[in-house]
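Ligand: flavin-adenine dinucleotide. Inputs:
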Amino acid sequence: MRGRKGPATDELTPEQARLQKGAIEFAQAELGQEMRERDHSHEFDREGWNKCAKFGVLGMPVPAEHGGLGLGLTDLIAVMEGLGYGTTDLGLLFSMHAHMWTNVIPILEFGTPEQQDRYLPKLCGGEWIGANAASEPDAGSDIYGLRTHAEKRGDSYVLNGAKIYVTNAQVADVFLTYATVNPELGALGITAFIVDRSTPGVSITKPMEKMGLRTSPMGEVVFEDCEIPASQLLGREGRGVQAFECSMEWERGCILAGCLGAMQRQLERSIAHAQQRKQFGQPIGKFQAVANRIADMKVRLDTCRPLVYRIGRLKDGAKNARAEAAIAKLHVSESFVTSSIDAMRIFGGYGYMVEQEIERELRDAMGGVFYSGTSDIQRNIIARSLGL
Ligand SMILES: Cc1cc2nc3c(=O)[nH]c(=O)nc-3n(C[C@H](O)[C@H](O)[C@H](O)COP(=O)(O)OP(=O)(O)OC[C@H]3O[C@@H](n4cnc5c(N)ncnc54)[C@H](O)[C@@H]3O)c2cc1C
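Predicted complex:
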C-alpha cells in the first residue's frame, strides 16, 4: 500500500479495475477545467456532461435495448469512484447522479414501454438532462406532506404547485415530479409524473445559489395550470411513493461513490503536504497530532468504500437495499465532511485559501448531509429497520 496512488482495488474485479483506471485517465484529461472560475460563477460544464455521456456513464447500468451499456451497478460505482479521483468537479458528478437515480432508474423500473422508448435512449445518451422536482417550501424531510396538486380532467392531469432545490433545473429537459391527487389521502394520493420542460405552464422561476456543488445548477420550478396527458403518469395514480422510494434507495446508496475518489485524492494530498511542509525543523507529519488526523482520514475512507460497494452488489443481485443505502449515505457523507475539515487543518492557513481548492471540497461535502434526506432522516430509516 505504501506510496501507491489512486483508489484501492480490493472491492473490484480485474475488469472493474480496468474500467476505473480508464475513468481516472478520462477525468484527468477531460474534466474539471477552470474549476475556480466556474465554481465562482456557478457554471455547469455541458461539454463535460456530453463527454461523460459519450464515455457511457449515464446509461451504464441500463440494458442496451434502452440505450445503456448493460453493465452492473458495481461497475458504475467503480467508474464514479474513478471520476471523483480524476476530477475536482464534484458538482458535475452530482448532476449526473441526480439525473440517473431520480429519472433514468425510476423510468426503467416503472415506465411503460412507450415511456422507456421515448425517454431512456436520450437520457442515457446525455442528449436530455433529467431533474427531480420533489421538495417544496413546506415539504422537505416530510416529503409526503407535499402540496403540488394534480387534478384529473378527462384524459389529462392539471398540475399546480411550486418546487424548490431542483438540481439541474435550469438545464433540464425532463422533470420527474410528484403531486397529490387528493391531500386527504396522504401518501396514497401522491402520484409521479414525467413532465417535459416544453410543456406549457412549466417555468424555472429562479436559480438557487448554493454554498457548494456550484457547478451543478439548482432552481425553483413552478407548475401553473400545467396540463399533462395521463400517458405521462409514471406508474399508477396514487403510487408515486413507490417511484420516489425506489429513486431514493438507488440515490442514497450510490450518490457518494464519486466522493470516495475525492477522499482518496484528499488523503494523498494531505500525506504529501505533511511530508513536505516543515515546521520546528521537521516535516509536520512527524507530529503525532498531524499523523493521527491522516490516520483517521484513512480509516474513514476504508470504512466508507465497502458500504458503497455493498449497495452495488445488492442491487446487482436485484435485492432490497433500503437500510443499507441509508447506512452508506449517512457514513460517507459525514465522513467526507470530517475528512475535508481534517485536510484543511493539515494544510493550515493554505487550506483556508481558495487557491488550494480544499475549502471548495469542504463546501461540496456539506451538501451531502442534506440532499437525498438529511443525516437525521437516514438515522430514522436505520432505526426503523431495527424495529424502533
Ligand atoms: C445540494 C442539494 C441538492 C438537492 N437536490 C434536490 C433535488 O434535486 N430535488 C429535490 O426535490 N430536492 C433536492 N434537495 C432538497 C433536499 O432533499 C432537502 O433539503 C432535504 O430533504 C431536507 O429538507 P429541508 O431542507 O426542507 O429540511 P427540513 O426538513 O426542514 O429539516 C430541517 C432540520 O430538521 C431535521 N428534521 C426534520 N424532520 C426530522 C425528523 N423526522 N427526525 C429528525 N430530524 C428531522 C432535519 O434533519 C434538519 O436538520 C437538495 C438539497 C440540497 C442541499
